[in-house]
Amino acid sequence: MRILGFSKKWDKLKQKEFTTFRFPRRDKDWFIGEQVQIVYKPRTRGREILGIAEITDSDPKYLCIITDYEAKQDGFKNWREMLDWMMKRYEFKKLRESKMNKLTLRWIDEN
User: Fold this and answer.
1) What are the structural domains, with CATH classification, of the chain?
2) Contact 108/52 with Cβ under 8 angstroms?
């Protein structure tokens, strides 16, 4: 089972169903029906397994067409705040040219 990591305990993680945006993986991209282990701070000693979720939808999107509503669903005040957060983590070229997967997940087993 693959790990889907989060660096922040977003309020959305308390919902039965939530969304997250991820770049496609080089090895094997995320797919509908896949069960993933949701982990807070996966690459640290303080890692915390939050539970198991299933990917129920995957919608490829360029960052520039993500709506304010989608950004709010993802835990931001608006699209601009989401863009600022992404700009701190990824190269501008990648954000401008690459599609991201809008993944919708549903909890199966929460810790």
Assistant:
1) 2-110 (2.30.130.30)
2) yes
